[in-house]
Design goal:
490 residues; alpha/beta; 6-stranded mixed β-sheet; 38% helix; globular
Length: 490
């Protein structure tokens, strides 16, 4: 299925170009870049002489091949000398994105004596006598381990631990920027479930929480379940729970826009891996009318043979009419489509077959399950995971505030009540008087989001009974325990 990729800041390039010193030269550059499909974001004059002007042209492109095409278009112009092309994303990553910064100046012998030897010995002894003091007197109070084995890096697959490090660095930077949480990447050179569990258990004393990241299903379910059982600090798999929280928040406001109730809608979820399973579990707990789960084997239904335990559970608790067809057929007449799977699975015509005032969350990145421009022709509300489209559903809305709240409450586990509270807080930040088809979630830069989420999670941790009970109870509360053989999201 053909699809034209959209330019993005993720493929931004800066091109240093020498052009003749005449009035039309710079205009020809911007015109040529635009005609090649790039979005020009900046043009800076960096030097000149009587005959030439040196400029830096910065533009967003769709991918590496498109960037080459833009450069070729500029090179073909008469009198233009392309001298250097810089990939701004790679420049940003030079030397990594995070660092350790001391909270103690250590300017004098006095400060050194208290921060380190001999004064530090008294603090060590205090913690040995009362281990709970570690939360008060060490970095454990505000530090999270971002743990990955590199087996499911973004949508790129099994790239390994070293290649996962840029993502984990970015995650740590987001924790600090949006939640004030000190996080550190812990990338593991093993993909053995037992080894991962043992390693994380061994390093846990230094941390107040564990954020599992980019670990492929089905191992991610078992790893999370075993660590939750073994540790007295929260274990949170962001690919599952962060995504589910943000989707529930966005869907809450999208339903407000179209005037529908969750109990009355039929939802189709494409992708029954880690994210999709968590989304469906949370929606079922909140009393959704019906869900059809779709994955590589097709729609999950009760007559499908040889299902793994997680998919069998989904087949038994979703798809009331036992639909067994393809994805376009599944969304025909559906109220909501949620994609956490693969690009370009649907067309605008498929969306046209959905119910009146349909809601489409096409979250595959960087290319959604359906072109959002086509989807908007037929759906009332469209969201993606892209920052250059309206209604970006991004996990950064959830995890910084969730961990901020759990750390502040000295929580020992992450609970479903916290997830529901966080989703409601995100939705309510927008405000019912502000929501519309292009604003169903707050901006990731809205300074109200993380504090609101943190407060809601902290309240849920300190008084779980204050969080209203879920509207439905479809089955076991702890899906990871039955998901040991679940398939990865396609």
């Amino acid at each position: 299925m053909a699809n034209t990729r959209l330019p993005s800041a993720g493929f931004s390039i800066t091109i240093r170009i020498a052009v003749p010193a005449d009035a039309s030269s710079i205009g020809r550059l911007t015109t040529a870049a635009g005609e090649a499909g790039a979005i020009v974001t900046a043009l800076d004059v960096v030097d000149s002489d009587p005959a030439h002007v040196i400029v830096d042209l910065t533009c967003d492109t769709a991918d590496a091949n498109h960037a080459d095409q833009v450069v070729d278009a500029l090179t073909a112009l008469d009198g233009v000398d392309v001298r250097k092309v810089s990939d701004r994303t790679f420049l940003l990553h030079l030397g990594g994105k995070i660092e350790v910064s001391s909270k103690v100046a250590l300017r004098t012998r006095d400060e050194l004596s208290r921060a380190y030897t001999p004064g530090v010995a008294r603090v060590c002894q205090a913690i040995a006598e009362n281990p709970a003091d570690a939360r008060r007197l060490t970095i454990k109070r505000n530090t999270v381990a971002v743990v990955s084995d590199g087996s499911a890096v973004l949508g790129l697959g099994n790239l390994g631990p070293a290649a996962s490090l840029p993502v984990m660095e970015g995650k740590a930077a987001l924790f600090k920027r949006f939640g004030g949480v000190d996080a550190w990447p812990v990338v593991l050179d093993t993909q053995d479930t037992d080894e991962i569990v043992q390693i994380v258990k061994a390093i846990a004393p230094a941390y107040g929480g564990i954020n599992l990241e980019d670990i492929a299903a089905p191992r991610c379910f078992e790893i999370e379940a075993r660590l939750r059982e073994a540790l007295d600090i929260p274990v949170f798999h962001d690919d599952q729970h962060g995504t589910a929280i943000c989707v529930l928040a966005a869907l809450t406001n999208a339903l407000r826009v179209v005037g529908k109730q969750l109990a009355d809608v039929r939802v189709v979820v494409s992708g029954a891996g880690a994210a999709g399973t968590a989304i469906m579990k949370l929606l079922l707990r909140q009393g959704v009318g019906d869900i059809i789960a779709y994955d590589r084997q097709g729609a999950l239904h009760r007559d499908l043979p040889d299902l793994n335990p997680a998919w069998r559970w989904l087949a038994e608790h979703t798809n009331k009419e036992n639909y067994a067809g393809d994805l376009p057929g599944a969304i025909r007449g559906a109220d909501v489509f949620i994609g956490v799977s693969a690009p370009n699975l649907l067309t605008g015509e498929d969306i046209a077959g959905m119910a009146k005032d349909a809601i489409v969350f096409a979250l595959a990145n960087p290319d959604p399950e359906v072109d959002p421009r086509e989807a908007r022709k037929y759906a009332a509300v469209v969201a993606t995971g892209r920052s250059d489209q309206p209604n970006q559903i991004n996990n950064v809305l959830a995890f910084p505030g969730v961990f901020r709240g759990m750390l502040d409450a000295h929580a020992e586990e992450f609970t479903e009540e916290m997830a529901i509270a966080a989703a409601r807080a995100i939705a309510d930040v927008v405000g019912e008087d502000k929501i519309n088809p292009t604003v169903i979630v707050p901006s990731v830069f809205d300074s109200r989001v993380a504090p609101a989420v943190a407060a809601a999670v902290r309240a849920a941790a300190q008084n779980p009974a204050a969080t209203p009970a879920p509207a439905a109870d479809p089955g076991p509360a702890d899906l990871p325990e039955i998901a040991a053989n679940a398939s990865a999201t396609p």
